Amino acid sequence: MAESAGPAADETLLFLTDDQIRKGIEAMFFAYRGFTADPDRILADQGYGRAHHRAIHFINRSPGTTVNNLLAILGVTKQSLNRVLRTLIDDGLVRSEVGTRDRRERNLYLTEAGAALERELSTAQRDRMRAAFRQAGPEAVAGFRRVLEAMMDGDMRRHYMRFRESES
Amino acid sequence: MAESAGPAADETLLFLTDDQIRKGIEAMFFAYRGFTADPDRILADQGYGRAHHRAIHFINRSPGTTVNNLLAILGVTKQSLNRVLRTLIDDGLVRSEVGTRDRRERNLYLTEAGAALERELSTAQRDRMRAAFRQAGPEAVAGFRRVLEAMMDGDMRRHYMRFRESES
DNA sequence: CTTGGAATGTCAACAAGGCTGACATAAATT
DNA sequence: AATTTATGTCAGCCTTGTTGACATTCCAAG
Predict the structure, then answer these.
(1) DSSP A15
(2) pLDDT by residue (tens digit) across B110-148?
(3) What does the radius of gyration of chain A's CA atoms come to, in whole angstroms?
(4) Alpha carbon distance A52, A88 (integer Å)
(5) I need a surface site. Which of A34, A139, A143, B7 has the fewest CB within 10 A?
C-alpha cells in the first residue's frame, strides 16, 4: 500500500512500537511477581517452594497423571521433578500408585492433606487473580488470555489447550 | 440486589468463575515460559542466567541507577544482586562508578559490550512479544496490560508506573 | 568536631531447585 | 531373547535465592 508509512498506519500500529512492547515486557515481569507472591509466602512457611506448587497444581488438575506426563508439562528433568515428588510423597501429600494398564507407570494423586494444601494455595492465587479480573473487566480478560495464548511456545500451548478442552 | 444469583448475573460474571480464573492462572504459567524462553537460550550460551538479564534490562532502562534502586525493583537481597553485578562488571558489560553526590553509592551503566548483549536479548524477547501483540490485536493488548497492572503488588506497580511516565 | 548510627556495598557460607551423566530395575514390545 | 520404555536413584555441578559478618561512607546529634 502506498501510504503504509503514513500517519494513519502509525496510529493503528501504535501498540507495536518498541516502547509499547517494552511496557508489555515489564508488565509481564512485575505481574508475574504478584502472581506468585501469595503462594510463595504460604509455601515458605511449610518449607516448600514453587516447584512443589507446580507439581501439586498439575496433579490436582489431572489426578492419576503419570510422572512422564508431568515432566512434559513442567518442562524439567525427571531428576529435578523426582526430588520434589519424593518429598511430597514422603510427607504424605501425594500418593503414587503403580499403573494398572502399564505397571511401569506411576499414577499420581493428591492425598487429603495434599488436596488441603492445594486448596489453600489456589485460593490465595485465585483471590488475587479474581480481583484483577474484576477490576479489569470481561473484555480486558479476554484480551489478556488472547495475548498470553499467542505468547506460548507450541508445546506449552498444546498442554494448555488440552486442559481447556477437558474442562470446557 | 434480589436477582444477584440469577442467570443474567451468572452470564455477566462468567469470567470470574473458578474455572475461568484457573485458566487464567495456567495461561500465566505457560505464557511466562514462552516469555523467557528466547533470552534464556541466548544467556545459557554465554554462561549467564535470568538474573543477569534482569540486571541488564533495568540498568539499560535507567542508566546511572544505584544498586539500592535496583534492589527495590528486582526484589532480591543486595548480596544476591551483588554476585550477578560482580560478574557483569568483571566481564566488562557493566560499569560501576562511585557516586559523586554520595560516595557510598555506585552508579551503574552498560558498557558498549553490555549494550550489545542488551540489544540481542531484548530483540529476541520483543520479537515474540510483537508477534503475540500483532496476532491478538490492539484491544487484546490493552486488556492484557489492564489485567497485568491489576495483578501487580503495590510496590511493583509503583516501579512499573514510574517507568511508564518517564518514557511516556 | 567527634562520635554513633544509618546507608551502602562486599565477602562467606548455605539451601533450593534447575541441570547432566551414569546406572538399575521392571515391564512392555518386537 | 533382545530391545525399548518408564521410572527411580546417586553424584556432582550451576544459578540464584537466603543470612550473617563486616568495611566504608555519610550525616546528624551532642
Answers:
(1) G
(2) 999 999 999 999 999 999 999 999 999 999 999 999 999
(3) 20
(4) 8
(5) B7
- Alpha-carbon distance of A141 to B15, in angstroms, equals 7
C-alpha cell at B59: 540498568
The CATH code of domain B23-136 reads: 1.10.10.10
CA distance A124 to B89: 40
Angstrom distances, CA of residue B162 to CA of A71, A92, B26, B89, B168: 40, 46, 29, 27, 10
Structural domain spans, chain B: 23-136
Q: Is the CB of A102 under 7 A from strand D?
A: yes
> For strand C, which residues in window 78-117 of chain A come within 7 Å by CB?
79-81, 83-84, 101-104
What pLDDT does residue A164 have? Answer: 64
User: Sheet containing A106-110: which strands, arranged edge to edge?
Assistant: A65-66, A106-110, A94-98
Could you tell me if B53 lies within 8 Å of chain A, comparing CB atoms? Answer: no
Q: What interface predicted TM-score (ipTM) does this complex get?
A: 0.88
The length of chain A is: 168
If residue A155 lies in a helix (H) or strand (E), which one and from where to where? helix A154-166
Q: Average pLDDT over chain B, rounded to whole?
A: 89
Q: Which residue of A has its CA nearest to B57?
A: A26
The answer to whether the C-beta of B86 is closer than 7 A to strand C is yes
Helix (H, G, I), strand (E, B) or coil at B138: helix
Residue A24 has pLDDT above 60, yes or no: yes
Q: Are A79 and A85 in contact (CB under 8 A)?
A: no
CA distances from A63 to A87, A89, A114, B18 (A): 18, 15, 12, 18
C-alpha cell at B7: 442467570
Quick one: cell of B110?
A: 552498560
Whether residue B136 contacts residue A146, with contact meaning beta carbons closer than 8 Å, is answered with yes
Q: In angstroms, how far is the first alpha carbon of chain A from the final one? A: 42
Q: Is the pLDDT of residue A28 over 60?
A: yes
